[in-house]
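ok trying again, last paste got cut off:
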Amino acid sequence: MFENLTDKLEKSFKLLKGQGKITEINVAETLKEVRRALLDADVNYKIAKDFTARVKDKAIGQEVLKALNPGQVMVKIVHDELVELMGGETVDVNLKGSPAIILMAGLQGSGKTTFSGKLANRLKTKQGKSPLLVACDVYRPAAIEQLKVVGEAIGIAVFTEEGSKDPVRIAKEAIKFAKLHGNDVVIIDTAGRLAIDELMMKEIEAIKSAVNPGEILFVVDSMTGQDAVNTAKEFNDRLNFDGVVLTKLDGDTRGGAAISIRSVVTKPIKFVGTGEKMDAIDAFYPNRMADRILGMGDIVSLVERAHEQFDEEEARKLQKRLAKDQFNFDDFLKQIQQIKKMGNLKDLASMIPGMGKAIKDIDIEDDAFNSIEAIIHSMTKKERADASIIDGSRRKRIANGSGTTIQEVNRLLKQFVDTRKMMKMVSQGSNMRKALAQPKGRR
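nice, full thing came through this time. structure:
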């Protein structure tokens, strides 16, 4: 995501290297490159032009502090303007109403059905809601079946009326059903088309009029670039939707939709889809997105994802085991499984400041841990508990049992020893800080 844009922006800032002050002369070439980078990322021309004009107004004559250079000052100005361009602040989904009604809109292939499931799953797991998914796409082959599969995977009910070709009736009956069965959120998945047409617009307007949703979300495939922005404008003119959802931000996207869409429709981006799994959905934070566009990583989101998978009781047990130097391969395996739950590995690595550029050309597969897990599972209970007993003959047996090589087994054993040392040091440091923080009378 945004790799090319990040690279080009970094190169443009380097043009100010060695300058003691930002002037109209030395900033002109930099902003020319910034504008070119935005256009290459499929940002609307007028938006790119207005953006660089605002940056220029703020940058001219800026005194450069001794601790900074002009390039760093320019990065700060561009960062702040990007945040503003993308909406400034995070806007949550509206859940008012009993039940709260959310209407999904968008073109066919934008990811509406999958996102409907992701949103339902998020509301269920994070907010304790009881959502109902409603299948109102009566045209696309297997659309209803797809929503059923999604609902079954996340344990959420799906309302359908088999044989009915009236989406307005289906939506109205679904709300009656929700009230009877205690569903406090109704998410209506509507039909899309391969392109905007009058029939589709009239149908979704009729559903809107019939159920009066508290929230209309426009779902758009971010990989369609500037076309996504144009489609959003046409939908907004007819539906006056409340927010935008950008899907497929984990793909090979130039990012223009994320940067442009807020300015064109003046509606906030509320969510982004970051993968295929049902938990691959994030609230949209303009500040964090600007960080990532400028290659600064997104450490806050990384910590949040880690916290979601964090088991407090397990952490306490692990702390005690580390203190007693009892960390073993069973513990190591649990840590790997927690990391896997956090999402796409390359996406996670790119959230670490400076890592995005370093891993740009490296292909990190989601099955990267499979061989490690296979090796651990090929160990006996005693071997997992005490790695020191794993001699040459045991290593050969483990390699054969896991379908790996002795070299891979040796590498894992070394990684395990290094990890145990590091985690013990971190644990001891944490205990020392806690002890020092206690009042003297309690030590």
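cool. Confidence is low (pLDDT under 50) at residues 64-68, 352-362, 430-437. Residues 87 and 268 are 6 Å apart (CA to CA).
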